[in-house]
Write a structure and sequence with these properties.
alpha/beta; Non-ribosomal Peptide Synthetase Peptidyl Carrier Protein, Chain A; seven-stranded mixed beta sheet; five-stranded antiparallel beta sheet; 31 helices; elongated
Length: 972
């Protein structure tokens, strides 16, 4: 079915299309439009500004984000066109807008409409999946070519569509690139990517590699660069991020972060993650593995990273899906940022799990043209969507009726209104305004959630009209009792119900002493359930504050009525004055409605009054007004409005220029940051130019860069000395082994030379448990990390051990004679019949009273982790009735990593564990012996478990390479 939009013509519609115009003509017309808006916004500034294409919209002309939206609407009306949303939203100068205008399409073409989304066959959700990876693999295996998501350029133009197969294949390939960069399970990788294909691929690539994604938001404009990067540096340092993945053109700016974050080894793009070598195994991810670290809004000095496991996320997605009655028949349209939980988990991962179609657009597109969200819902017949409260306000204030002609929102079943306080007036106005366009009251769903519970905690029943509670203001603010207001009360508090706790989750309201409160008693909201975090990453203090005897503190005040939750405000934001609770958001919303005050740009907070022992009420409100009389009148109006709501006038009203009040990435007022600006006297301080911000950021990283340079010099000198010493040591050892006539003498010489060599490079071996070593007739098994393993064992092991080496070494002109003179046993790894003979030789050697040394991993790689153990060593032990002695070698991988020849200093160690005996000679006994030995080594080596990998098919191997005669592939 096709849905087309009828648009009335206007004065500019019949002109030539935009490309046919002369550049100078539409440049002059654009400048005239900008000048007209600047005159309306700043009458005094318009007289002195020399407006040109190089004029900066914000700094020179004072056009903020709301003014930008208005300007773009006027440009589109005047030129009869649709500007590219992302380009217009990111524009810094008039010239940038002119360039966006050159890229625009005629409005008649842009609004022609496209076919509605074709309904896809119904499929079940990934019910049995335990991890997000299993969810994607489940869908990719059963319906690989089903379209999972579509990235939109605007409300109608698809940029890219991804099937489940395409997403899984691209993510696996990028995961190989991460593994090649030494990423191991548990590493943190930051994502600073806009909405687009790369984000989806990178997120799952990180999960496939066993690492943990840390989404952070990219700067929208260069004018915000310094504050943005300072904030992100604090997050990256706390996360210990190894790699930052961003867009190719953002790598230079991201390098400024690398200079300030010691753990950050590289800045990559998704395109640059293409693997160079053969595919290796991917780690097995468990439901208890961390799947996401989500940083909550807070101060830059104390970032809080909420750790969420796969089990947490899937529990929340399933519970939300049950509340929303979600299925694969649903279609979700979202402009929500993917670095925010509502867009990442609620929109994308929820659609992934239930196989619902997702249409996603850039947040910039919505901010520049709010109606694009509604038109995308119309065109793709969306059944679900969601947004914070400010988005509904923006639709009410910035969309004119002309832009809505032909709009049909009747397909919507539910639109979640969450992530910030829900405004009851905004609910009513939105339902009333868009009711004629098919929007049903029951589709509006005020919800409650928080990052500490993944995303959602409370939802109303699907299809129910919002429930509004009218509460006696005096009773709530003075006695914390939500008494119903009388019918004739003209000034009640109106609070929207957020519904009941999600299935499987619990909520309680407690007082300051932690005692649970009854019906309609306001207090602190606490929760628990399967979606709840285990704590904040590397922040034990905040984690301790979060938990109260098995319950988690939401940080919000609320009350319960009829089993439903009513949120009254953030605890840290509520101001207590003379025993009265003052709720900032109510005052902020009311003052934002004063003509001349910027709506959504008001912060109310409390500042300690040491004289009275209570809190002073401070209001910071943005305005463009510069006339003293007008500003005084605004301050007077603000005091009256605040007094009417709080019952007491504010202590100070500060009028500030635009873009003063700090906000989070999701648009919430950062009251604590506004308070800091106020107390440090930085309200209204002019923002530095972008080049000065970059210079300051570069200088801020100079100290770390110098420290890195000194580290490089020091490490290079050490590496040079290391190779000189090692070369000399190997030469002397080789000569001694070739000359000395007795095996005992050769081993004594090797032991002494190895110890002296390691001491000369400053890395003597710390040996533990040597007393557990038998004097002979035992099988010793060690983890294998580096070529240095044999040097370390040569310095530590007593007597004359028998090393088991691969047969390829026997033909080596240098190593072959050396190893043979030390009594090594060469084995064939790939020929099964030959390797069985090698087993007999190993058993015979064991019967001669010497310890046999195996590296049962077979080979080592540069990648950290303990690989699976092959069975050869354990068959030898079982057949000969010998004990197996597990040993752990520490530090050699860091000293000389596989495929690298640059050594680094690190402490070395060898730990010998207790001997293990096989319970028999049968295959099951050999497997048990192997598993027990491997678990011992894994517990002591401190590296990830790489034994359970998703591997490509392997050829038939000998038992020293893992196969048990004719039993097939290796047992896991």
């Amino acid at each position: 079915m096709h849905h087309r939009v009828h648009v009335e013509p206007h004065t500019k519609r019949d002109e030539l299309s935009l490309p046919a115009r002369e550049g100078g003509a539409h440049e002059r017309e654009l400048i005239a439009l900008v000048r007209e808006l600047v005159h309306e916004l700043h009458p005094q500034r318009a007289k002195i500004v020399d407006l040109s294409v190089s004029s900066r919209l914000e700094r020179d002309l004072g056009i903020d984000s709301l003014g930008r939206t208005e300007l773009i609407l006027r440009i589109e009306r005047s030129f009869g066109t649709r500007l590219p949303g992302a380009a217009a939203g990111a524009a810094e100068t008039v010239g940038d807008l002119l360039h966006a205008l050159d890229q625009a399409h005629p409005e008649s073409e842009a609004l022609a409409g496209i076919a509605a989304a074709e309904p896809l066959p119904l499929v079940p959700a990934a019910i049995e999946a335990r991890t997000l990876i299993e969810v994607l693999e489940w869908h990719a295996a059963r319906h690989p070519d089903r379209v999972h998501l579509t990235v939109l350029d605007d409300d109608s133009t698809p940029l890219a569509a991804m099937t489940y197969r395409a997403l899984a294949e691209a993510a696996r390939e990028a995961a190989q690139g991460l593994i090649e960069r030494d990423i191991v399970p548990g590493d943190r990788i930051a994502l600073m990517l806009p909405t687009g294909r790369d984000f989806f691929v990178a997120f799952f690539a990180i999960l496939y590699a066993g690492a943990v994604p840390v989404p952070i938001y990219p700067p929208m404009r260069m004018s915000q660069l310094e504050e943005h990067l300072h904030r992100q540096a604090a997050i990256l340092r706390n996360a210990g991020a190894r790699i930052l993945i961003t867009v190719p053109e953002g790598r230079s700016a991201a390098a400024l972060l690398q200079a300030q974050v010691a753990s950050l080894t590289s800045v990559e793009s998704v395109a640059g993650l293409s693997p160079r070598g053969a595919a290796s195994g991917l780690p097995l991810t468990r439901e208890t593995s961390a799947a996401l670290i989500q940083y909550t809004s807070g101060s830059t000095g104390d970032p809080k990273g909420v750790v969420l496991t796969h089990a947490n996320l899937l529990a929340n997605i399933r519970a939300i899906g049950q509340a929303m009655e979600a299925s694969s028949a649903d279609i979700f349209v979202s402009w929500l940022p993917l670095y925010h939980d509502m867009g990442l988990i609620g929109a994308w991962l929820g659609c992934l799990y239930f196989a619902a179609q997702l249409y996603v657009m850039s947040p910039l597109t919505f901010l520049v043209r709010p109606e694009s969200w509604l038109w995308a819902i119309h065109r793709f017949r969306a059944t679900l969507s969601g947004a914070p409260n400010f988005a509904f306000e923006l639709c009410l204030n910035k969309i004119d009726d002309r832009s809505l002609q032909g709009l049909d929102l009747s397909s919507l079943r539910m639109v979640a209104n969450g992530a910030e306080p829900v405004s009851v007036p905004a609910l009513r106005r939105f339902i009333e305004r868009f009711g004629p366009y098919g929007f049903r009251p029951g589709a509006m769903a005020p919800v409650y959630g928080l990052a500490e519970n993944s995303v959602g905690l409370a939802f109303p029943p699907a299809g129910r009209t919002p429930v509004i509670d009218r509460v006696d203001r005096e009773s709530l603010t003075r006695r914390a009792i939500a008494s119903p207001a009388q019918p004739d009360d003209l000034h009640p508090l109106e609070i929207a119900s957020c519904g009941a706790p999600l299935p499987g989750h619990e909520v309680r309201i407690v007082d300051d002493l932690g005692f649970e409160l009854g019906e309609r008693r306001e207090g602190r909201l606490e929760f628990r359930g399967p979606s709840a975090t285990s704590g904040y990453f590397r922040n034990e203090t905040k984690t301790r504050e979060l938990f109260h005897g098995g319950w988690l503190d939401s940080g919000d005040r609320a009350y319960m009525a009829g089993g439903e939750i009513y949120i009254t405000g953030r605890i840290k934001d509520i101001i207590i004055r003379a025993g009265r609770h003052i709720y900032p958001q109510q005052i902020e919303e009311a003052i934002g409605g004063i003509a001349g005050i910027r709506k959504g740009c008001v912060a109310v907070f409390g500042a300690a009054d040491r004289t009275s022992g209570t809190e002073r009420v401070i209001i910071v409100a943005e305005t463009r007004e510069s006339d003293p009389a007008t500003r005084a009148a605004l301050q007077g109006q603000a005091r009256q409005v605040a007094a009417a709501i709080a019952g007491t006038p504010p202590d100070e009203v500060v009028l500030a220029p635009p873009r003063t009040v700090p906000k989070t990435s999701s648009g919430k007022i950062r009251r604590s940051a506004a308070k800091e600006l106020y107390e440090t006297g930085r309200i209204g301080v002019t923002q530095r130019a972008a080049w000065r911000q970059i210079l300051r950021l570069s200088l801020a990283g100079t100290g770390r860069q110098l420290a890195r340079l000194m580290t490089i010099v020091r490490e290079t000198l050490y590496a040079t000395w290391w190779w000189i010493v090692m070369a000399l040591g190997f030469t002397v050892a080789w000569c001694a082994v070739m000359v000395l006539p007795r095996l005992k003498w050769r081993w004594r010489a090797v032991r002494g030379i190895a110890r002296a060599t390691l001491a000369a490079v400053g890395a003597p071996v710390a040996a533990k448990g040597l007393a557990r070593l038998p004097s002979g007739n035992a099988v010793l098994v060690f983890n294998h990390s580096s070529y240095m393993d044999v040097v370390v064992l040569g310095a530590v092991l007593p007597d004359e051990p028998v090393y088991v080496a691969k047969r390829e070494f026997a033909a080596h002109f240098f190593a072959g004679p050396f190893i043979r003179r030390l009594g090594a046993l060469f084995v064939e790894r790939y020929d099964t019949s030959v390797s069985l003979a090698d087993t007999a030789n190993a058993i015979a050697a064991a019967s001669q009273g010497r310890n046999i040394v195996f590296f049962p991993e077979g080979a080592f790689t540069r990648r950290a982790g303990l690989s699976e153990f092959y069975l050869g060593a354990f068959k030898v032990a079982a057949e000969a009735g010998l004990p197996v002695v597990p040993g752990i070698i520490g530090g050699t991988r860091s000293m000389l990593r596989g495929s690298q020849w640059f050594p680094r200093w690190t402490p070395l160690s060898v730990t010998i564990e207790n001997a293990i005996m096989a319970s028999g000679k049968d295959f099951a006994s050999v497997l048990r012996l192997r598993d027990e030995a491997r678990n011992t080594v894994l517990a002591g080596c401190g590296e990830p478990d790489l034994g359970e990998l998703v591997k490509p098919p392997q050829p038939l191997r000998g038992i020293f390479e893992g196969n048990w005669q004719d039993t097939g592939s290796r047992s896991q």
